[in-house]
Amino acid sequence: MNYTDFHPARTSPITPREREYLVQLIGEEKILKNKDTNGKASSLKREAWIRITSKFNAEAYGPERSDLQIRKIWERLKIKAKKVKASNKQETMKMDDGTPPQEEDEETNKVFNIIADELGDFGNEFDSDARESGEHELTIRIKEAQLREIELGIKLKVEALKNTDLERKVLEAKLVAFRKMADAADEVKSAATIVQAAAFKSID
Asked: Which InterPro entries match (predicted)?
């Protein structure tokens, strides 16, 4: 079952406990780290999101969420992790001792461990001569990642619209079938009336 067919795309607030469990479930689905975009990989990824959604809703933390909603929550978690990592990297390259300016929380690290392949190696140390170019490269990577997130968001909206269009077509088909049944019932009723009238006439 695809939960997208039954729930709106807008998500309600998610609790820290829900975020922790969601990150755990996503980390277990190795196919989501696969960069391939062919038909087979895309199909396997869709199945993975459906499994994640089913397991997440089975815990009954709060309102049931669709796979589309789950993926939007994940997008936001990724964006947050990327911003924290990017900010720390840029600040670290400006400091002589290389110490990160802020402590990264466990959730950020877990999310980033899942998506690290999307941005390449954040851990390379740049010397003072390479800092400026390193910062520029990092900025480009972040922008590219954000564009990919926007692209995914658009694809999800298109998918939701397709589901809505499919529901409309199903309802239209049901309406046509109902009208045919109603017309057939009217014909049967008319025929019965004619037969009844003929019967009364013969009696007279």
From this structure: Myb_DNA-bind_5
Work out the mean pLDDT of the chain and round it to a whole number: 74
> Cα 184–190–194 angle (5° rounding)?
145
pLDDT < 70: residue spans in the chain: 1-11, 60, 92-103, 117-146, 189, 191-193, 195-204
pTM exceeds 0.85 for this model: no
> Cα(88)–Cα(109) distance, rounded to whole angstroms?
12
- Domain positions in the chain are 3-159
Handedness of CA 70, 74, 75, 80 (dihedral sign): positive
SS3 track for the chain? CCHHHCCCCCCCCCCHHHHHHHHHHHHHCHHHHCCCCCHHHHHHHHHHHHHHHHHHHHCCCCCCCCHHHHHHHHHHHHHHHHHHHHHHHHHHHHCCCCCCCCCCCHHHHHHHHHHHHHHCCCCCCCCCCCHHHHHHHHHHHHHHHHHHHHHHHHHHHHHHHHHHHHHHHHHHHHHHHHHHHHHHHHHHHHHHHHHHHHHHHHHC
Per residue in 118-164, pLDDT tens? 665 444 434 444 445 555 555 666 666 667 777 777 777 777 777 77
76 vs 21: CA distance, rounded Å = 15
How crowded is residue 120: how many other Cβ atoms within 10 Å of its Cβ?
11
> Are 68 and 156 contacting, i.e. CB atoms less than 8 angstroms apart?
yes
